[in-house]
Amino acid sequence: MTSIDPAAARRATEEVPSIPRDGDGPVFKEPWQAQAFAMALALHERGVFTWPEWAATLSDEIKRAQAAGDPDTGETYYMHWLAALERLVAEKGVASRDTLHEYRHAWEHACDRTPHGKPIELTPADFHH
């Protein structure tokens, strides 16, 4: 399970007002959303980007999705979060777009071969399918 530092989460929700939250802090519908949130917190804490950079990139990704037909009901918020995360990781040189693409396809392969209800495990073979 993903562990999120409550103080870091509070700072993030103060800086990025669009984060879905309740009285206790950020809320997530799926485990991957919490993991994406935690990755953004970790990269911010390491100085990869500032919260204003993050908010601008996230806003841009949301606008891009809306222009492409996203109804902006809130259901796709963390898809935009993930797109912003991938974009900043590539722009800041943490990982190339090619590397991100390679891992995305490897995870898709791992997902396809995993029986429903079982944990998805990424293996070296998923990179060479």
Sheet with the most strands, sense and barrel status: 2 strands, antiparallel
Distance between the termini: 28 Å
Find the count of extended strands (DSSP E, 2+ residues): 2
Mean pLDDT: 90
In percent terms, what proportion of residues is strand? under 5%
Question: What share of the residues lie within helices?
Answer: 55-70%
Annotation field: number of helices: 5
In the predicted model, the low-confidence regions spanning at least 5 consecutive residues are: none
Give Rg in angstroms. 16 Å
* Computed structural class: mainly alpha
Return the string of H and E elements: HEEHHHH
Shape: globular
> Strand order within the widest sheet?
1-2
Region (Disordered): 1-27
InterPro entries: CN_hydtase_beta-like_N (IPR049054), CN_hydtase_beta_C (IPR042262), Elect_transpt_acc-like_dom_sf (IPR008990), Nitrile_Hydratase_acc_put (IPR023808)
Domain Nitrile hydratase beta subunit-like N-terminal: 23-106
Protein name: Nitrile hydratase accessory protein
Written description of the protein model:
The protein has 129 residues and is mainly α. It has a domain at 6-95. It is built from 5 helices and 2 strands; from the N terminus they run αββαααα. Strands 1-2 form a two-stranded antiparallel ribbon. β1 (21-22) and β2 (25-26) form a beta hairpin.
